[in-house]
Amino acid sequence: MAKAREKSGGSSKKGLKRKAASEEPQEAAVAEDGATESGVQPPKAASFPPGFSISEIKNKQRRHLMFTRWKQQQRKEKLAAKKKLKKEREALGDKAPPKPVPKTIDNQRVYDETVVDPNDEEVAYDEATDEFASYFNRETSPKILITTSDRPHGRTVRLCNQLSTVIPNSHVYYRRGLALKKIIPQCISRDFTDLIVINEDRKTPNGLILSHLPNGPTAHFKMSSVRLRKEIKRRGKDPTEHIPEIILNNFTTRLGHSVGRMFASLFPHNPQFIGRQVATFHNQRDYIFFRFHRYIFRSEKKVGIQELGPRFTLKLRSLQKGTFDSKYGEYEWVHKPREMDTSRRKFHL
Amino acid sequence: MAAAGARWNHVWVGTETGILKGVNLQRKQAANFTAAGQPRREEAVSALCWGPDGEKQMLVGCADRTVRRFSTEDGTFQGQRHCPGGEGTFRGLAQVDGTLITCVDSGILRVWNDNQKESSEDPVLELRVGPGVCRMRQDPEHPHMVATGGKENALKVWDLQGSEEPVFRAKNVRNDWLDLRVPIWDQDIQFLPKSQKLVTCTGYHQVRVYDPASPQRRPVLEATYGEYPLTAMTLTPEGNSVIVGNTHGQLAEIDLRQGRLVGCLKGLAGSVRGLQCHPSKPLLASCGLDRVLRIHRIRNPRGLEHKVYLKSQLNCLLLSGRENWEDEPQEQEPSEVPQEDTETDELWASLEAAAKRKHPEMEQTQRALQPRSKKKRPGSTSS
């Protein structure tokens, strides 16, 4: 008899179903009680009526039905609660308590003791005398060499060319299977200050090695989400020869500072504001987003921006102390996934 | 005061910016000490060793080829000595019987007469060890014996009281399976206690044991670990194993009886520059290019004990070998003040002493926050 009821409940419309459903729990409860009256009463989650949970229904369609109905109920209650809260806030007006700030991973970030304090003298001295000191003291101006891994495919070549339009005073050279350790002394003798190598795998660029030249640190990044100019929607015309401004966002820790300075030393010091171009390196949760925009101020507060050049995302894999020497060089920081990625709220840059 | 509490520091670390840091693990404080009051990169500390009388004095070898004397009791630099000759930084620093032994990168090993005058005299003894030296280490049981090794510079043991020739000169291992010469790059050397044996770790990720007492000049035992150059090594208290660190920040304990890996230690992110074990406790101090000093416990259970962020890249360290780490006498503060405020009333002195005794924690937290700033108390001397 119960079976027939169930079947009819399953096939009929919702209104009927609802009635059947309201009767059902009681029936099921009765049936259950009847079954277990001899045994121990198992302590269920629902206290009254002695409940059953939706996950115990063996019939998948019925179970799904009950679940969707429960979900709709929950949603309704949530909406009702929200409305009520809103009404109360409006009623209170100014005296309403401030809105609670939602928890995000960024604001739950664990305290990092290496975050640089702007007044710290020791760190300031360290930065003033590190390998980038000659750039920041305006003694040298950057000259970049951009190359790829051997035998690059079209996407990588196009990315290199677009990068060279974005970074002023940069030259693209074809990597003729030459070893980086042999290229580097040649670069130094020709006064290059930085070397960028874009690594390619299966016809897409996936890595970036940035080496500051006289004897500076080498950073190795994973590159993802590469979008060339023609893949960017609603973009502006090609960038001009003007020197862009730089924005470095959110490089707070000591490691972040080193990496941020590396990026800053790629661009000449004197941004030409006539060009209205800006390159942004935005760090969020250890991912560095590179964007290149042209902006125009329509009024004091309103800006319009057009995205120009290529766009990609970087993630730091290692920072090595000297010029490129992955086997025998000394590493300042190496990303170790199993040791460093255990907490979702801990970031290193 | 940081300078006065210097004698209780457990670890002394030398940095690339020329600052000597003293770390007190009980109070969890780090204090900076510089000779000139300002950090200078030319004074980057490249070698540290204890002075003649126990742990009261320290010799600090800097990149500008000066050896400075630092008193751990007072927390001040007391004198310096310029040690010219050869090129490169100090790769080893030792002292014996009132003389100072230095060895530089280009292979000039000199023994200087260490009197209090700062005149740069000629060295008492000079040896040419061979170019490309990476480490010179003194035998703690026979202080006049030193060992040197480096890149393409095989291990040599010198007797400073003996002849100009090395007592033991190691031979390279046989050619490998492709009949190619195996390159030599000895990065760190240690003398094993209670025997004549030496252990070296190489830049080609090998750990080798040599025995001068045996007829063979080749290594007696060879073990490999990892794929990156091993940069630092230390002996464990029992003397059966060594702990090595490589350029990726991996620390491993290798048993020397069998040549096998006992276990690894996690935590470092940068190249390991300095390692030292406590002579009796199972503690290991490690410092490296990631600017953090870590103290690990080596056994039961193996893990990280303390981690201290020191803002500069750390080059070398010295761990205090004393036994009583836990009991720190806390009555230093009130006893100092009456000596300084000689002009003021005794009443004021006793009041100040009482206040300090009441709030020792506040003082310490202040010191923890501003290790290098001058104290604002009247009549106090600067650190």
UniProtKB/TrEMBL annotation, chain A:
Localization annotation: Nucleus, Nucleolus
Question: Per the record, which residues fall in region Disordered?
Answer: 1-105
Q: Which GO terms describe its molecular function?
A: rRNA primary transcript binding
Give me the stretches of Basic and acidic residues compositional bias: 87-97
Query: What PROSITE patterns does the record point to?
Result: BRIX (PS50833)
InterPro entries assigned to the protein according to its UniProt record, in alphabetical order: Brix, IMP4/RPF1
Keywords for the protein's UniProt record, in alphabetical order = Ribosome biogenesis, rRNA processing
Q: Which residues form the Brix domain?
A: 142-325
* Primary localization class, coarse: nucleus
A GO biological process this protein is involved in? maturation of 5.8S rRNA
Task: State the function annotated in the UniProt record.
Answer: May be required for ribosome biogenesis.
Q: What is this protein called?
A: Ribosome production factor 1
Q: Which organism is it from?
A: Erinaceus europaeus (Western European hedgehog)
Q: What is the lineage of its organism?
A: Eukaryota, Metazoa, Chordata, Craniata, Vertebrata
Q: Which gene name does the record give? A: RPF1
TrEMBL record, chain B:
One GO biological-process annotation of the entry reads: ribosomal large subunit biogenesis
Task: Output compositional bias ranges, type Basic residues.
Answer: 372-383
Note the InterPro entries from the entry. Answer: Quinoprotein_ADH-like_sf (IPR011047), WD40/YVTN_repeat-like_dom_sf (IPR015943), WD40_rpt (IPR001680), WDR74/Nsa1 (IPR037379)
Major subcellular location class = nucleus
Q: Does the keyword Iron-sulfur apply?
A: no
Keyword annotations from UniProtKB, A to Z:
Methylation, Nucleus, Phosphoprotein, Repeat, WD repeat
Protein name from the UniProt record: WD repeat-containing protein 74
The organism named in the record is Erinaceus europaeus
What are the top taxonomic ranks of the organism? Eukaryota, Metazoa, Chordata, Craniata, Vertebrata
Gene behind this protein:
WDR74
